[in-house]
Structure formats: structure tokens, C-alpha cells
């Protein structure tokens, strides 16, 4: 289970986390995490987990197992990804193919040509090589099959670097910047 967004203020976020921890401890759910939290929200939650553990004992504050964010070369979120990877939190990347809105970007075209892959396949491969779990969305069987056909090539370090755009261009909402 994931807390979908950091809205609701600090008390709301911490109360929602506490409810997930209680459900997990009761055996009702297996893994818990967050979605769309900024680093400041993650730091807040990490402090709260430590506080709960100091009051109730080790493991009683819960563990952030997984988090979901929009992540792709035009919104790489290095701060969030680094925070999670340092702590062993699995990062799931939604919109990893940018809703297919960037398939004709010049930065992708040499890779599409070199590997004989679609731009979406290159973007999914980028996600995997970044250590992310990409969550492409499709209901079309041919696209689902195409999205899975990304294990027969690997981007070089130079090619990975070429996809670092340093842009901030979400294609969905971005609650990570919320100061609520």
C-alpha cells in the first residue's frame, strides 16, 4: 500500500503512515510506501519512523519499502532517487515513457537508430539501468509486448549520460514540491 501524495499536512501524512504500519503489523498488508513525496516529506517521515521506534521498539515505526514518482530523462529526480537508493527503498517510475510525448526528441534518435528499438524501449532501458522499476501504462497488447522487449541491449555509460537533460518537465502532476 502507498500513501498517494503528501497532501493533508504533517499530521495527516503521519496519521496515514501510522495507519499503514498498524495494518502491516496486523498482517493485513505486506509492504508499505509513499508516492509523490519530496525529499523534505521523506525526511519528515524518516524522523517520524525513528520517533515511533524510540517509543515502541525497533521495527515498530514501519519501513518505507517502495515509492512511486514520475521519473524519466526530463524529470530525473536525482535527489529523490539518491535518497531512496541510499536507504534501500525501491523506486517505481511512473510515466517512464513520458506518455509517448517525447519520442521524436533529438537526444533519443541516435539510440533508436543504433539499437533498432523504439524511443519508448530506449526510455524503459534507461529506467532499468538507473536502478528504477519502470511502470509503463498500456492496454494495447502489441505495446505491452514491445515494452517487455528491452533486455537484448544495454545503453553505454556515455549514452546514459547523453540522456541527462537536467530539465524539470513533468507530464503529470508534481506534489513533491508541496510545502503543505
Average per-residue pLDDT, rounded, comes to: 97
Helix content: 40-55%
Strand content: 5-15%
Annotation, overall tally of beta strands: 5
**Structural class by SSE content:** alpha/beta
* Radius of gyration computed on alpha carbons: 18 Å
* Biggest pleated-sheet summary: 5 strands, parallel
- Poorly predicted tracts of residues: none
Described by the principal axes of the CA atoms, the overall outline is: elongated
What count of helical segments does DSSP give?
7
Helix-strand string: EHEHEHEHHEHH
Sheet with most strands: strand arrangement: 1-2-3-4-5
The end-to-end distance, rounded to whole angstroms, is 22 Å
Brief descriptors of the model:
180 residues, single chain, alpha/beta, 5-stranded parallel sheet
Concise summary:
The protein is an alpha/beta fold. 43% of the residues lie in helices and 10% in strands. It has seven helices and five strands, in the order βαβαβαβααβαα.
Written overview of the protein:
This protein has helices spanning 9-25, 39-56, 78-87, 109-115, 119-129, 141-148, 157-162, and strands at residues 2-3, 33-35, 66-70, 90-94, 133-135. The longest helix is centred in the first third of the chain and has 18 residues, at 39-56. The chain is elongated and about 55 Å long. With 180 residues, it is α/β, with parallel strands linked by helices.
Amino acid at each position: 500500500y502507498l500513501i498517494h501524495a503528501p497532501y493533508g499536512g504533517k499530521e495527516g501524512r503521519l496519521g496515514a503512515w501510522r495507519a499503514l504500519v498498524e495494518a502491516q503489523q496486523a498482517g493485513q498488508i505486506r509492504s508499505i510506501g509513499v508516492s509523490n513525496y519530496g525529499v523534505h516529506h521523506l525526511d519528515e517521515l524518516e524522523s517520524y519512523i525513528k520517533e515511533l521506534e524510540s517509543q515502541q521498539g525497533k521495527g515498530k515505526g514501519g519501513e518505507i519499502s517502495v515509492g512511486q514518482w514520475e521519473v524519466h530523462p526530463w524529470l530525473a529526480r536525482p535527489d529523490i532517487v539518491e535518497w531512496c537508493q541510499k536507504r534501500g527503498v525501491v523506486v517505481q517510475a511512473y510515466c517512464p515513457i513520458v506518455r509517448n510525448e517525447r519520442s521524436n526528441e533529438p537526444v533519443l534518435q541516435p539510440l533508436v537508430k543504433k539499437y533498432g528499438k523504439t524511443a519508448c524501449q530506449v526510455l524503459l532501458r534507461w529506467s532499468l539501468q538507473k536502478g528504477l522499476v519502470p511502470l509503463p501504462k498500456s492496454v494495447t497488447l502489441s505495446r505491452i509486448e514491445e515494452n517487455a522487449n528491452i533486455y537484448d541491449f544495454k545503453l553505454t555509460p556515455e549514452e546514459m549520460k547523453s540522456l541527462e537533460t537536467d530539465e524539470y518537465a513533468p507530464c503529470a502532476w508534481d506534489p513533491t514540491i508541496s510545502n503543505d
